[in-house]
Amino acid sequence: MKKNILCIVFTILIVSCSTDSESNPSEYIDILKEANTISVVPENKANPFDFKGSLYYNALILYRENKKAPNSITGITEQIQFISGKFNSASKTAKNLIVFDDQIVQSIMDDPDNIMINIVQGSSLATSVKSNLTSFLQNLILHRDDEFDVIYSYIISYENVVLENGVLTKDEKDTILTITSISRYSLYSETQRKDRDWETSVGSKISRPFFLCNEVSIISIIALLKVLI
């Protein structure tokens, strides 16, 4: 049954990847929620650019060895600047360092969907690729509070379709698969933060975190688009 569900998802995604029309794969995530097919793991060995996500994750771990998880605009700005620098120095295909400040972080927090769309639309990708990548990222934003195994299922389903797509150029595939790889590892990192510094105060009183569920990862992914496309 689970294999049949994923086959349906792959078929629908193949159609959306090979056309210029707008697509909204939100329904696929709902199907995958019911399928519940994936354990919580970050990697997808089928993606030849899985190492890019690993580079991102390693930079994040390195940063958090000496810094607390971000709980302010300034905190996430510093984290993204650090990751951007490490990612660029380790990745031969990274294009440039991000010019990043608190104001940009705030703008992404306020309107992540439109900021993401503006970055993608301003890139040199083909129109059909922009449309498809936008739909993929919109669903990460929309479903950011879902369990990681559901989001992971959606991402690797999308990656498998991209790998099999005969219309996309090599550069287009490389770009998309790098973004999906980083997305997987970034969202996975949220599952590793069970003991958040800001969740506990004197008397074990739980305080409200500054960022919503997976918001740090979504902001980081959108910020890194400037490097990747």
The gist of it:
By secondary structure, the chain is an all-alpha fold. It starts with a helix and ends with a helix.
Topology:
Elements: H1 2-17, H2 26-35, H3 50-64, H4 73-90, H5 102-110, H6 112-121, H7 127-142, H8 148-164, H9 170-191, H10 215-228
Helix pairs in contact: 1-2, 1-8, 2-8, 3-4, 3-9, 4-10, 5-6, 6-7, 6-10, 8-9, 9-10
C-alpha-based Rg, rounded: 17 Å
**Distance N to C terminus:** 37 Å
User: How is the main sheet built?
Assistant: none
Pick out the low-confidence regions: 1-38, 195-204
Instruction: Estimate the strand proportion.
Output: under 5%
Question: Can you characterise this structure?
Answer:
It is a single chain. Helices cover 64% and strands 0% of the residues. The protein is mainly α and 229 residues long. It has a domain at 67-194 and 214-229. Helix 8 (148-164) runs antiparallel to helix 9 (170-191). It is globular, with a radius of gyration of 17 Å.
Q: Which characteristics define this entry?
A:
single chain, 229 residues, mainly alpha, globular
